[in-house]
Amino acid sequence: MFNFLPHSVLQMGTIFLSIVIEAIPFVLLGCIISGALQVFLTPERVQKILPKNKFLAILVGSFLGFFFPSCECGIVPIVTQFMRKGVPEHTAFAFMVTAPIINPIVLFATYIAFGNSFKFAFLRALGSLIVALIIGSWIAYFNRSPILKAELHEHDEHHHGEQEKKSFKSNVWSVLVHGIDEFFDTGRYLIIGALIASGMQVFLPTQFMLQLTSSKLIGILVMLVLAFTMSLCSEADAFVGSSLLSLFGTNAIVAFLVFGPMVDIKNLMMMKHSFHGKFIVQLIALISVIVTVYALVI
């Protein structure tokens, strides 16, 4: 039916559909969780749960993903809702960078992908925790630029108190309504991100990049670019990483496994919807430096 189209366009379409089909269930789950947070999580409850000490709050956020797992495809709506409900920004972003990695499903998939070896699962989890602690500390003690876009605050203020004194059935309906709204709002950015990612996978000169593996540092940087452009879900990326291990070596593959769930094209597009551009640039630059240094010294 589409035989008249160039092979590269057909390949791009196939990759695009695979990214979207793989990501949509996790985006939907993230949006439903976001809806539940919108309805049931109050600022008062947040203040009771989280420790007052900033560093302890960062630690709580870093390990929360183990008990509250989420794929990076749906993490942005959850983090956005956390902040709108009074969760400190340093806690929310510590959760954002670790949740797609330290959750049991991803760690088990990593263990299986590398031949039932704990090495890469451990290095991956350790790297994510180091990034979370540094990013959380930067936000808590040094960052002064706004993070969440003003219109999201205004939207939250407009709906504040609407869920008060409702029955449980009404609250469940509110969760679904909010989740669906969030899904269609966030989903368009997923589509744009998947389209860009699929185009880069087809038209980016990968063979040229693979020739740059003679240097450990360059190999790491190449794998950061591949992680960003391939935009794989964290449940699946370990199998791709294991297939590239003999070519790139341990350092570069660990960088790939740590960086990919934190920053990729589809995730970037969803962040752009919720967060200020200046903050996003600073966040990605800092994550890139931390992951590169970590991969070099392990």
TrEMBL record:
InterPro entries associated with the record: DUF318, UPF0718
Pfam families reported for this sequence: ArsP_1 (PF03773)
Membrane topology: Multi-pass membrane protein
GO cellular component: plasma membrane
Record has Disulfide bond as a keyword: no
Transmembrane segments annotated in the record for this chain: 15-43, 55-80, 92-114, 121-141, 216-232, 238-259, 279-297
Domain of life, per lineage: Bacteria
Entry's family note: Belongs to the UPF0718 family.
Record's protein name: Permease
